[in-house]
User: Which sequence fits this backbone?
């Protein structure tokens, strides 16, 4: 685990050094859990959003997009349940004065018990080699069974306490499991309290006439209140989806793990409206499609898993997360939820406006059920950083750090490098740059030795470098160097555009997906 923590520190440091992510307001000592995306980060983030948007809106005739406002009528948040129920259970350690989410402390404890079981299995696998029967070992080994029993007991108590919203029981589990504060090492805990996560502000010219409004804690409600607008103007037939990318805000008290949990973040959400009774079929359909989308990036199927919820939200009848193996364990990057007809029914009740759909095939009106897919853009971005970060020792003993981004998402697709800054090579390189910059993101770079420039572009994840040398002036060819293999090949300048465009085209990823 310590090794993974070191890797995580390196990723955070690398992100700043190479223009991916900066602490926000840094010259004023920063603002906790708020970050800015740098010049390479914003390109990677935009490419990621484009990949998601096209996979939803371009590939599905029955999915369209909107962009709703951040400020919304405050009654919307009453209807959605956020005013009364959007809380985190928090607990303080009296010695360190640090505040934690009680549920996260227990989840971390469960993860440690899982780790103990896996270590026993790995040790036995090494000891017995090819003759090892893993299933038999898991079912009969006393230490595995003891840890499994402990884990199951804690897990069932935890799930019950969450579902009953029993804060005393949550605290009792923390005490019974002897969970200590990571800072002070003590178990001197306060009671567990609920804390509402919404930011509020006032809208209006005077304090007397101002209306209390909220910064939206999720982007989904902007879709629900526009359900009929989109359905009618787009002549949409159920089943159909509405997609949106936008900012959301949560006053996270326990913001941590770099950009994993932030106070200002971005979501990519799609709400899919279906005939009541068909929601679980569509839930399974979107589960499959969304996992495909993640795995198409090529980081390995073993890096992802589904995690079904212990506690269903008040509006859901099924929920699962797609988790990615971050350096700090498997963590949620996307949620898939069957939200029933809760949202539309609530808005109908609170607004007094009918939120039903007339189905010409069934010849009746009904409130559609909803299946939601929701990704945190920043978490997804972090998973791509973690999946791509690579330290490699070369044959000559040197090391290089490289970001093995999928070429389609890389911030810079092609670096154009004149071998030396004389003999007409920079002019020729500029000519190539001016021709190719209309097609994809290129970067001209003439500073330092060619080796240092290759290392620099490895570090920002540029998949291809084209070197312009003296031979270029004679036969109009350049050397293309491939990031991952470091192999080089001579290609004609005329074919350069096709080669790079083909290898970096988003279609390569989209064609891997089922529609």
Assistant:
């Amino acid at each position: 685990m310590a090794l993974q923590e070191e890797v995580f520190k390196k990723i955070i440091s690398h992100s700043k050094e190479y223009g991916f992510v900066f602490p926000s307001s840094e010259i004023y000592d920063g603002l906790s859990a708020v970050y800015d995306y740098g010049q390479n980060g914003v390109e990677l983030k935009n490419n990621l959003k484009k990949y998601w948007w096209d996979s939803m809106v371009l590939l599905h005739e029955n999915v369209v997009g909107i962009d709703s406002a951040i400020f919304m009528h405050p009654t919307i948040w009453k209807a959605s349940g956020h005013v009364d129920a959007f809380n985190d259970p928090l607990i303080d350690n009296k010695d360190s004065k640090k505040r934690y989410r009680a549920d996260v402390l227990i989840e971390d404890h469960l993860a440690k018990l899982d780790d103990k079981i896996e270590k026993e299995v790995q040790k036995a696998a090494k000891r017995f080699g090819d003759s090892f029967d893993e299933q038999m070992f898991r079912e009969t080994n006393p230490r595995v069974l003891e840890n499994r029993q402990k884990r199951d007991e804690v897990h069932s108590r935890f799930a019950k306490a969450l579902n009953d919203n029993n804060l005393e029981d949550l605290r009792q589990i923390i005490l019974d499991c002897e969970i200590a504060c990571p800072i002070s090492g003590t178990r001197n805990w306060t009671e567990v309290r609920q804390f509402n996560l919404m930011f509020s502000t006032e809208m209006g010219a005077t304090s007397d006439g101002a209306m209390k409004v909220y910064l939206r804690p999720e982007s989904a409600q902007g879709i629900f209140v526009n359900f009929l607008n989109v359905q009618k103007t787009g002549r949409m037939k159920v089943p159909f989806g509405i997609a949106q990318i936008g900012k959301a805000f949560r006053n996270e008290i326990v913001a941590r793990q770099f950009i994993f949990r932030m106070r200002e973040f971005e979501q990519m959400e799609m709400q899919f409206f279906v005939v009541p009774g068909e929601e679980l079929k569509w839930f399974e359909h979107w589960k499959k499609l969304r996992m495909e989308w993640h795995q198409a990036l090529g980081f390995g199927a073993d890096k992802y898993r589904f995690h079904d919820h212990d506690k269903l939200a008040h509006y859901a009848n099924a929920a699962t997360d797609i988790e990615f193996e971050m350096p700090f364990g498997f963590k949620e990057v996307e949620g898939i939820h069957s939200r029933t007809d809760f949202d539309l029914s609530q808005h109908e009740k609170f607004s007094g406006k009918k939120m039903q759909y007339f189905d010409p095939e069934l010849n009746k009106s009904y409130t559609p059920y909803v299946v939601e897919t929701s990704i945190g853009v920043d978490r997804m971005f972090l998973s791509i950083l973690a999946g791509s970060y690579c330290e490699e020792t070369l044959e000559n003993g040197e090391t290089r750090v490289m970001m093995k981004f999928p070429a389609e998402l890389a911030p810079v697709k092609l670096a154009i490098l004149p071998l030396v800054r004389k003999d007409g090579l920079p002019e020729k390189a500029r000519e190539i740059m001016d021709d190719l910059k209309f097609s994809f993101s290129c970067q001209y770079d003439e500073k330092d030795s060619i080796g240092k420039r290759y290392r620099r572009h490895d570090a920002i994840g540029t998949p291809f470098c084209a070197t312009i040398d003296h031979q270029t002036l004679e036969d109009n060819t350049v050397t293309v160097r491939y990031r991952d293999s470091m192999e080089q090949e001579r290609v004609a300048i005329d074919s350069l555009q096709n080669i790079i465009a083909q290898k970096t085209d988003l279609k390569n990823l989209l064609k891997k997906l089922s529609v």
